[in-house]
Amino acid sequence: AQSVTQLGSHVSVSEGALVLLRCNYSSSVPPYLFWYVQYPNQGLQLLLKYTSAATLVKGINGFEAEFKKSETSFHLTKPSAHMSDAAEYFCAVTASGYSTLTFGKGTMLLVSP
Amino acid sequence: GAVVSQHPSRVICKSGTSVKIECRSLDFQATTMFWYRQFPKQSLMLMATSNEGSKATYEQGVEKDKFLINHASLTLSTLTVTSAHPEDSSFYICSARDVTGGSHEQYFGPGTRLTVT
Q1: Candidate from A46, A97, A108 with C-beta closest to B104
Q2: What would the pLDDT profile of A5-50 be if each residue is shown by its tens digit?
Q3: A36 to chain B: which residues are within 8 Å by CB?
Q4: Cβ separation B111–A41 shorter than 8 A
């Protein structure tokens, strides 16, 4: 079974500041890990994914995440926040391409001017 | 990238009526689609896995007779909420798995806001 823990239901940053959203996972098999973004009243958009290739994964909109097996973490970062980054972010894990996704509870990113 | 559509985007219905939500993969074939439910300010909860040509697999605690799923073609899955009640009001999101090229990536629809009065 897999599970995901996202630390912090809300994260506030200033525009231009570093964004760090934390995700820790639990999996009995090598995981596939994902970060999704959700804007209000919309579906989920994939930011990036880790599928056992490079541990540092670059995604869209300047986001990247690093898979650290020893820490069971997959934290999402962006060097400089934009106002348009304000949204809900979900980390998800699955055991394989055929398995279902298990989502974390989400982290709301707030960006102030 | 692959696109998944949902229809309608919003629906308001009276208690006791049924509502059908459609999920379509527009530019790829999806043998598997997923239905999620999301309560305000909460995460997505998987309701069921829909497989083309076979019965859906429901998650524990989801009433299969209340949430009817039909995956009649490789591009269309429908979720029917039968005898809807106010507690069924929620945001319903579908996703479709694209297995072409071995990606197995899930693409999400824009969601359907159901309000039962």
Answers
A1: A97
A2: 999 999 999 999 999 999 999 988 888 999 999 998 888 999 999 9
A3: 108
A4: yes
